[in-house]
Amino acid sequence: MISEYQGTGIQNKWRLILSVMMLSAILATTSKAATALLPEDIHWLTNDSDPVYASADAVTGGTLNTAVLSFPLTFRTVGPDSNGSFRDFILNNNLSLIDVHPNTGKIIPELATHWAFGKDGKTMYFKLDPHATWSDGKPVTADDYVFTLEFMRSKYIVAPWYNDFYTQEIDRVIVYDDYTIAVVGKKAEPDLYLKLAISPTPRHYYGTLGPDFVSRYNWKIVPNTGPYQIADFQMGKYVHFKRKKDWWGKDLRYFKNRFNADRVNYTVIRDFNMLWEYFKKGKQDVFGLVMPQYWHDKCQIPVFEKGYVDRTWFFNDKPRSAVGIWLNMDREIFKDPNVRYAFAHAMNIEKVIDQVLRGDYFRLEQAFVGYGPYTNNAIKARRFDLAKVDHYMKASGWHRGADGIWGKGGKRFSVDVIYGFEEYTPRLVVLKEEAKKAGIELILQQSDSAAAFKRILEKNFDVAWMGWSTSLRPQYWEFFHSVNAHKPQTNNITNTDDPEMDKLIEAYRNSLNEAERIRLSRKIQQRIHDIGMFVPTFMIPYTREAYWRWWRLPTPPGTRLTNDLFDPFNSTTGGLFWYDQKRHDETLKAMKDGRSFPPVTIVDKTYQTPEESPK
User: Fold this and answer.
1) Which of 325, 332, 330 is nearest to 347 (CA)?
2) Is there a contact between 200 and 215 (Cβ–Cβ < 8 Å)?
3) Which residue of 81, 106, 126, 504 could cross-link 73, Cys pair, CB 3.0 to 4.6 Å?
4) Residue 418 sits in the same domain as residue 562
5) What are the residues whose beta carbons fall under 8 Å from the beta carbon of 568, sequence distance 6 or more?
6) Burial class of residue 25 (count of CB atoms within 10 Å of its CB; 0-12, 13-18, 19+)
7) Per-residue confidence at 609, pLDDT binned at 50, 70, 90?
8) Is there a domain that residue 210 lies in?
9) Residue 559's domain is classified under what CATH number?
10) Which DSSP state fits 402?
11) Residue 395 Cα distances to 333, 338, 348, 390, 435, angstroms
12) What is d(CA 573, CA 402) in angstroms, rounded to the nearest whole number?
């Protein structure tokens, strides 16, 4: 507290200077004074009236057996090698102050029971839930939010994006008492709650950070606030999560009847075909059927026909992932925009959709689709066009060689394409054949998904085939600002380094006006299109999943934002399924006796948008 540094009677000059330095450091992240008072006219808000979306029929129990294609490179959620898909499983078990109802879009409580908005437009006040605890039993208090800023600003975590965000976007945390805080942003802005709803970090666990942070915490199981915690793991083999039986949040309105499986076991199965075989034998409980050959063809087998396995096609309405082809502009061949445009026009995405994907997928027009007014719907992806390829390549002085491949100065237009999933190969084979007609050679390089992603983050590639996860508002700085270019372990994998883009992104980040932010968002998207470092491919406005019939889902089976019906952890959309012991026993007995059940295929269009109906 500030009072600790007043009237101490310290006579030694250097001790006094040290005390002042310590005080300055503390004040940089928190105000924690006995005289700090909440505004008298504060208007506390909560939300205990939005509809619940879990089923009242849900019961706890059972083990969900599922899989990952590769073992995570680390259990850290910040720092080198942390930005893989497994990271979400850990982060989703560390709650935020508040979140957004997946169907209504209104704020709902998580670690805070109440919230209020400051008159300055950049401050939010929060009453913390006094019942919230870490998985080691320690209470979650205001100091854990103070420590979040110290942690995320530390150079020792080796996480430039977090260093920047928690320095440039978050000003400080003000502590009024152990269960009342304010989080102050650097500026007023629309949708302030999306930025200030930070998560706590357990000071009692980490203590003082040091230069050994990355190695020290590589495989540590850090206390969390969510319903599950890692129980055990074997390197390269599996990670098992266990539900906390006495979890503090189990009876809260928006958590009740959710997170029902006692255990969630992730087994590493590196081959997708092997995963399918395990699923058919009941060694895996769920299997994604988004890929057309599985939904249309491979499900024509006895376990489906005899009703032992159910399947659901569920349409959602959410921001679409930026799935596509990313060009590394630090490679000499892609420094020329004409070459980037030619490459885009050489990608016959429509043929892949029609022939390989059965017309089930939709063309993604640009990187930020589905964000409402923030999306520039005037942008259309470049289509396959041999004449335009010819135009752009000749404009930059390239000529077709004897083998039909473009060449210039002794260099051929031949590039590696890295991807991390064998099932993508048929799509890329078609693109490779079509690109050859356009005079471009694609060399396909498939590897383990974690290894491929690591190589992409290290910027050690020509062309990457991948997609990014989404947020409620478009995020640009980490992907396209030059400060994240030409260095490893950042999300600017294309090494975009464009002064005009930088200005637009900085203006977007600093704008206080929603209308201006929308205008800037659309301009940024146009600039991404004009630079041409990203070739959009597909969007999939649904999930399709198969699951053994002893797993049950509510009606409707997901929320507007659900992307995975059997996501066990996501605090707003996950954990809706439950295990039915009776159906498990009767299914195994029927299989043994040769009896069957009526096949079940559910198509739920509750949240389907008119423009995204299957062809």
Assistant:
1) 325
2) no
3) 81
4) no
5) 64, 228, 241, 259, 261, 264, 574, 575, 577
6) exposed
7) confident
8) no
9) 3.40.190.10
10) T
11) 14, 7, 22, 8, 19
12) 55
Identify which of 615, 585, 547 has the alpha carbon closest to the alpha carbon of residue 350: 615
* Separation CA 59–CA 286 (nearest Å): 19
Instruction: Report the distance separating Cα 370 and Cα 86, nearest Å.
Output: 25
Angle subtended by helix axes 337-345 and 386-395, to nearest 10 = 160
Residue 150 carries which DSSP code?
H
Half-sphere exposure (Cβ direction) of 478: Cα atoms closer than 13 Å: 18
Evaluate whether 492 touches 479 at the Cβ level (below 8 Å): yes
Asked if 358 contacts 512 with a C-beta cutoff of 8 angstroms, the reply is no
Same domain (yes/no): 522, 555: no
For residues 265 and 238, the answer to whether their CB atoms sit within 8 Å is yes
Mean pLDDT throughout 325-347? Answer: 98
Q: Is the pTM value of this prediction over 0.85?
A: no
pLDDT at residue 15 greater than cutoff 50:
no
Cβ neighbours of residue 378 closer than 8 Å, sequence gap 6 or more: none
How many CB atoms sit inside 10 A of residue 359's CB? 11
Range of the domain at 469: 322-539
Query: Among 400, 366, 407, which residue's Cα sits nearest to residue 386?
Result: 400
Structure tokens that stand for 137 in this block? 């039993």
**Beta carbons of 607 and 560 less than 8 angstroms apart:** yes
pLDDT of 389: 98
Contact 225, 93 (CB under 8 A): yes
The domain total for the chain is 3
Q: What's the chain's Rg over C-alpha atoms?
A: 26
Structure-block tokens of residue 387: 């004449």
As a whole number of angstroms, the distance between CA 348 and CA 437 comes to 10
Average pLDDT estimate for 330-347: 98
What is the structure's pLDDT at 611? 61
Of 527, 465, 453, give the one whose Cα is nearest residue 491: 453
Is-contact 505 480, C-beta < 8 A? Answer: yes
Instruction: Round to whole Å and give the CA distance between 306 and 596.
Output: 5
> Residue 232 pLDDT more than 80?
yes
Q: What is the CATH number of the domain that holds 515?
A: 3.10.105.10
The Cα 142–Cα 128 span in angstroms is 8
